[in-house]
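Annex B, item 7. Sequence and structure tokens for protein A, then protein B.
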Amino acid sequence: MTERCVVSREIDNGSSSSSSSSSSSGGDDELESSLDSQYTLSTSGLAETWVYSLANKDFCGDLMHWAQDVFDLEPSGVFPHVISMSYGVQKAPNFCLGPDVQRLAQDVQKMGTMGISVIISSGDDGSGEFFSDGNYYNYGLLAPSFPASIPYCTAVGATTFVAGNSGEQMAARQFGSGGGFSYDYAIPSSPTTLTYCLFNKVLWRASLR
């Protein structure tokens, strides 16, 4: 049987390399990445799975290098058709600047034209994240999750699975979604009524909605 998880692509300063394995220091981030891989492999059958490793710690810069790596593979016809990203940052001035946000949004849109589905975690703590500290009304701005707030990806919130339960699983209440809010893109026309209904019921500053 062909091995399923055999390609690791390390993105560093715009360069990429392929190998059969990647190093592991055992940190929390790598433990979570390992769990993500297990979920992916358990549902992907015999599909080949690639693991991207972003090595620079420059989140937005790394993402742009990652996107370029995907585009470089297009002529060969061998590139991932579903990309799952379990990490993001809060859309704040000290993270991704406007030009970087627009560039990454265009890259994800281009991936869509290649037939690639981009699925991104919508975050753990809602649009306030650590800036809110649980008191949303004490702070002046929401901090939407990025890149989950890009309209060309599919943002997925947290779910909980109960062992031995074959019924419907519900979203985990302890994790609030941070996707769906953006300072760069307008609200889609389809959910406008529901969106404003929500805004009128939550504790937040109306001038910022």
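Protein B:
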Amino acid sequence: MTEEGYCSIVGRIKDMLIQGGENIYPLEIEQILYQHPKIKDVQVIGVPDKRLGEQVCAWIVVKSGMMLTDKDVKEFCKDKMAKFKIPHYILFVEDFPKTVTGKIQKCVMREESIKLLGLECQ
């Protein structure tokens, strides 16, 4: 919030996910995860959750020759963001689905996550 009382939205509104009534902006989580020394690239999306509406899912590309686990990522996040923002699901990938022009396809990522994680669409 600015001194004048204005709020600014970080990231795109349509990328926002809602988890149990909390608004979560993926860009905020991505910026923190980019600080991890073993993470080359990251994208955060929302996936369906029966109880909370959506859960945070991070797609992570690890730097060449490095190893990283779910536990490592969650431990890294613990002191850097609110508990509800820590990715519930973490998928380690080689790359992200992209359009022919190179734009990341978050809708395809969401569909793939649902399949890979065995989740049900709402």
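Comment on protein B: The first strand starts at residue 17 and ends at 19.
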